[in-house]
Amino acid sequence: MIELDQRDRILYKTKELFMQFGIRSVSMDDIASAMGISKKTIYQYFSDKDELVTAIILFKLQESESTCLHDQHEAENAIDEMFRAMDMVEIQLSTMNPVVLFDLKKYHPHAFALLEKHKNDFLFNVIRKNLLWGIEDGLYRPEINVDVLSRFRIESMLISYDPAFYSKHKLTIAELERIVLEHYLFGIVTQSGYKMVLKYQQKRQKT
Questions:
Q1: Nearest to 83 by CA among 171, 159, 189
Q2: CA–CA gap between residue 68 and residue 126 (Å, rounded)
Q3: Which of 7, 54, 91, 119 has its CA 20 to 30 A from that of 100?
């Protein structure tokens, strides 16, 4: 049990450092120093930095899946679920250095492949179910192509992280992501869905 606790402490602290400074710029020595432990202790749990990065990504993906499924269950309707997703993303982005994804793709391809699989399998199905739910309730337009729009939403989720995109705007990545998601919603809603989006926007602004 003590070993598990120590491993989790390493994961949590390393995740904080990566989110703040990026992955490449944080060394195993930096992690050990920040935790007040020896580098040898870290290597008792992780054979190298790549294994540590992979473990953190797996943890984050499990956390994401749990939150998505919870929101799916608790949401009043499909639009409510999308605004809950917006809140989750905003919280995540508030402490994330955008260089993390670049570092992940370039220096840790195995971990990045896990992220891509999560996006293309799990998140695709979550979005697809949301679209079907919205159509069934009359909040989304019935003529939309569910599979195409699901894939479009998946690809648009990462545009805010692209340096070529976010560097051209004086907005945070969280603000850019909110704008992208709201435009996606406005493109698929019916008239009643449009009114509901406005209602959730106003509610969100008040809180």
A1: 189
A2: 8
A3: 7
**149 CB-near residues (< 8 Å, 6+ apart):** 127, 131, 188
DSSP annotation of 123? I
Residue whose entry in the numeric block shows the structure tokens 């896990």:
114
List the structure tokens of 22.
Answer: 């990026």
Checking 32-38 for CB contacts under 8 A at 24+ apart, the result is: 35/9, 35/10
Which uninterrupted H or E stretch holds 60? helix 49-74
Confidence (pTM): 0.88
Burial of residue 42, with CB atoms counted within 10 A of its CB: 0-12 exposed, 13-18 middle, 19 or more buried: buried
Q: Per-residue pLDDT tens, the chain, 207 aa: give them.
A: 445 589 999 999 999 999 999 999 999 999 999 999 999 999 999 999 999 999 999 999 999 999 999 999 999 999 999 999 988 888 877 778 888 988 999 999 999 999 999 999 999 999 999 999 999 999 999 999 999 999 999 988 877 777 677 667 777 777 888 888 999 999 999 999 999 999 999 988 887
Q: How far apart are CA 79 and CA 59, in angstroms?
A: 27
Q: Whats the size of the chain, residue-wise?
A: 207
Separation of alpha carbons 201 and 169, rounded Å? 22
